[in-house]
Amino acid sequence: MDLSNLKPAKGSVKNKTRKGRGQGSGKGGTSTRGHKGAQARSGAKNKIGFQGGQMPLVRLVPKFGFKNLNRVEYCPVNLSTLQKLAENGVSVITPEVLVEKGITHKKELVKILGRGELTAKLEVKAHAFSAKAQQAIEAAGGTCEKY
For residue 113, what are the CA distances in angstroms to 34, 138, 145? Predict the structure, then answer.
C-alpha cells in the first residue's frame, strides 16, 4: 500500500445532488422549493428564532437578574497554591511572580483565598485578600500588602 492508491471506503462518499439541472435529474423545475411563495424566491429567509408564528421561546421565557457594570473580577489563588510556591523556594509572592509561574494571566487582578494550609513565612502582595487568607498568612509570620 502507498499514498497513490488510497481511496475512501466503498459507499462512504456520495455525490452532491445538483438541483435545477433539468427534469431528467429528478430535481429540475422547482428545484425542491415547491410552487411560488416567499420560500420559493431567492433571498428568502426567516428571522433567527422564528417558530412559524408560534410565540418564540426567547419571548416566552421571562427575563431575570442583571449584570453589574461596576463588578470587579478577580483571579482566585488559594493558600495551598502559595504553599506549593513556598516549597519551591519562592518567599515573595506578587502578581508578576504568579504570571511567571503560569498561575494567572498578565492583566488579571489577584485575590488570595483561604482554602488550604500555609506553614511558610511569606511576603504576599495582591489586589485583594479574603479575611481567612489574611489571618492565615499573618499567623504563619508573613505579611499581606494590597496593590
Answer: 64, 14, 14
